[in-house]
Design a protein that fits this description.
The chain has about 375 residues and is mainly beta. It is about 10% helix and about 30% strand. A hairpin with a 2-residue loop joins β4 and β5 (about 80-90).
Length: about 375
């Protein structure tokens, strides 16, 4: 049985809290913002008009990342009469998809996540109609009048939601809610949101070839030759991103900090460069200058640590492994894995703007034909 959030206050929220981006229509003033918990309630279908949820995009997957274009594990259905009891569907329970989006429910009080699936590229284009440029993993979206929840991802408690209107990208004008990292049950996923973190450390930063030059994926994934990211369009900038280790002041089990290795993010990368990486930017030249880049990173890291700190949004999935001593090899014999895997979706200064650190950023040399 999934852990339940506290019921959300369904009073209309001031529209001044959200700034709509990319030319999307203004949000209706009658919208009431609710949580996934509210959508799971049996009475939701009777009261679904003018309801909306706010989610932070924490990951996006293309069908090629699943190998056969199917969801991992079986889908789950609600039992009639109880929104929190679920039973397995008949058959294999797998569903094909084009793209799989995972969101953090920003109205949740316990790190609840939910998923959105598109079945084909046309549906993905429709969903992202207002998200053509400058929108990426780590950004916030409003989902208007979602359907009641019927399906869940695999053995986790991530609901799969559907809706008719495209995503509305927004900028929050208020501070993000603080959600501490909590260890989920086996096979489940929780997000965390930490603000004002003043002890972030970057190490082993190195420019690397990114898997794509798009915005939406934030260049966070290191994909194989046969995999594709979730981007719908490509950007003109060079497909380069910094790969680095990030140490977070997170208490987990018996440790007080956690190192995320090989972290990649175009958003975070551009904090450290004074100008965009154009198509003419040579990766080899940046690699040669990696020690100078690391010095700039350390300077900016220390400055932001001492001036408002960092906002970190990420997620944690409690893994599971097959019990080798079991007589049968089925999911009921899985046991909790001791391997912790924390993923960062958003890492950016809480209050400092890029203009305030411009003098500290690395100034890479542009070819002569680009300097004019």
């Amino acid at each position: 049985m999934p852990q339940q959030d506290q019921p959300a206050d369904q009073q209309p929220q001031p529209q001044e809290e959200y700034e709509v981006l990319n030319g999307a229509p203004e949000l209706d003033k009658q919208l009431k913002f609710i949580s996934i918990h509210d959508i799971c309630h049996p009475s939701y279908e009777d009261t679904c008009e003018d309801k909306a949820i706010v989610g932070c995009l924490i990951s996006i997957k293309h069908r090629s990342s699943a190998g056969d274009g199917k969801t991992a594990g079986a889908s789950w259905m609600q039992k009639a009469g109880s929104p929190y009891q679920r039973m397995r569907t008949s058959g294999p329970g797998t569903v094909t998809y084009d793209r799989l989006f995972t969101f953090a429910d920003l109205r949740s009080t316990n790190g609840k996540c939910f998923c959105v699936m598109t079945s084909n590229p046309q549906e993905s284009d429709k969903l992202m109609r207002h998200c053509i440029s400058n929108v990426r993993v780590g950004d916030t979206f409003v989902i208007i009048e979602p359907d009641s929840i019927k399906n869940y991802m695999g053995r986790s408690d991530n609901p799969i939601i559907s809706f008719r209107q495209p995503l509305f990208p927004v900028r929050l004008k208020k501070e993000l809610p603080k959600i501490k990292l909590s260890v989920p049950d086996m096979g489940q996923q929780k997000f965390f949101c930490l603000t004002g973190q003043d002890n972030i450390k970057f190490q082993r930063a190195l420019p690397v070839q990114a898997s794509c030059s798009g915005f939406l994926c934030d260049r966070q994934q290191d994909l194989s030759l046969h995999e594709h990211c979730g981007c719908l369009i490509r950007d003109r900038s060079k497909a380069i991103v910094l790969c680095m280790d990030v140490t977070l002041p997170i208490s987990l089990d018996d440790v007080t900090s956690y190192r995320v290795q090989n972290f990649r993010s175009w958003r975070t990368t551009m904090l450290f460069f004074s100008t965009p990486l154009t198509p003419s930017t040579e990766l080899s030249s940046l690699i040669k200058k990696h020690r100078e880049i690391r010095t700039k990173i350390k300077d900016i890291q220390n400055y932001i640590n001492g001036n408002g700190g960092w906002t970190v949004i990420g997620w944690y999935h409690k893994g599971q492994v097959l019990d080798a001593s079991a007589d049968t090899k089925n999911q009921e014999d899985n046991i909790t894995s001791q391997n912790h895997s924390i993923h960062i979706s958003y890492l950016y200064p809480t209050s400092i703007t890029p203009d305030q650190i411009k003098a500290m950023q690395y100034k890479h040399e542009q070819p002569e034909n680009q300097q004019a």
